[in-house]
Write a structure and sequence with these properties.
Layout (H helix, E strand, L loop, with lengths): L36 E5 L4 E5 L4 E9 L34 H4 L5 E4 L10 H7 L5 E4 L1 H18 L6 E9 L3 E2 L6 E2 L4 E2 L5 E2 L3 E10 L3 E10 L16 H8 L12 E3 H4 L7
GO molecular function: metal ion binding; nucleic acid binding; RNA endonuclease activity; single-stranded DNA endodeoxyribonuclease activity
Family: Belongs to the DNA/RNA non-specific endonuclease family.
Protein name: Endonuclease
Length: 272
């Protein structure tokens, strides 16, 4: 249920500067294949979308007591009538579509939750873009444990001045006991099948007080029904583990030698 933690991690190496591709060379004379990801900034989140998996690799939010206020509600008569629209900012052949989820047995799982974007209807509507979605098990996960975790993150704004949270999908290996080999296996939905179903989802949470006091926690949850009585700490993982698994670097501008573990500073308890 829970990915096994490596014994230890070395301090993360300095992050290499991002290099823009130089397409003026002989190897790319007739075209640049392009990135596999698209970067986007919305009203209440920024994200990187993986074209091959049709999943967000990561979605980043900044939560405060003030920006959690608002009354936007998709149930209002004035709300947009088209639920879960495709993201037309992406090339058409790489978009996730509403029909991909139809009959799949999976929910359209928010990475940036609608509950974090009540400040206005535009912000909330952007959270329903399919580029902010990934297939999640519904009963017991998306509609229950994952929703409790989203509420837990929002409640942290009562204890910290600022909450920065990064959410995304993971594809973790499992061991074949017969062969001893590790493999990554995941379902793909859609017609044709092109939207990957993550094996796990992660949240990285950074709480900031006074601009210089940091608390950091990372969680990796299996994409399956989870008993609501399961302690959140069950899914706690070193940030370095999730970085290695995702190929990403989280909050690299924060000195981790000067950071408190989130669940040692506050009670990591979910409210149902």
């Amino acid at each position: 249920m829970q990915p096994k933690q490596p014994a230890q991690f070395a301090a993360p190496a300095p992050r290499a500067p991002v290099q823009s591709p130089n397409t003026d060379n002989e190897f790319l004379k007739y075209g640049y294949p392009g990135p596999i990801s698209d970067f986007m900034v919305r009203s209440r989140y920024a994200a990187s979308y993986n074209r091959a998996l049709r999943n967000p690799s990561w979605v980043a939010e900044h939560l405060t007591r003030d920006n959690m206020k608002g009354t936007a509600d998709r149930a209002l008569p004035t709300a947009p009538t088209s639920p879960f629209p495709e993201d037309k900012s992406l090339p058409e052949q790489f978009r996730a579509l509403l029909k991909d989820y139809s009959g799949s047995g999976y929910d359209r799982g928010h990475m940036a939750p609608a509950g974090d974007a009540k400040i206005n209807m535009e912000a909330m509507t952007e959270t329903f873009l399919l580029s902010n979605m990934a297939p999640q098990v519904g009963i017991g996960f998306n509609r229950h444990y994952w929703a409790y975790l989203e509420g837990f993150v929002r409640d942290l704004t009562k204890q910290f001045d600022d909450i920065y949270v990064i959410t995304g999908s993971l594809f973790l290996p499992t061991k074949n006991e017969a062969t001893g080999k590790w493999t990554v296996t995941y379902e793909v939905i859609g017609n044709p099948p092109n939207v990957a179903v993550p094996t796990h989802f992660y949240k990285i949470i950074l709480g900031v007080t006074g601009g210089s006091n940091f608390a950091l926690g990372g969680f990796a949850l299996p994409n399956q029904k989870i008993d609501s009585k399961t302690e959140l700490s069950t899914f706690s993982q070193p940030i370095e583990y999730i970085e290695k698994a995702s190929g990403l670097t989280f909050f690299d501008k924060v000195d981790r030698s000067n950071v408190t573990e989130l669940c040692k500073q506050i009670a990591c308890t979910l409210t149902k």
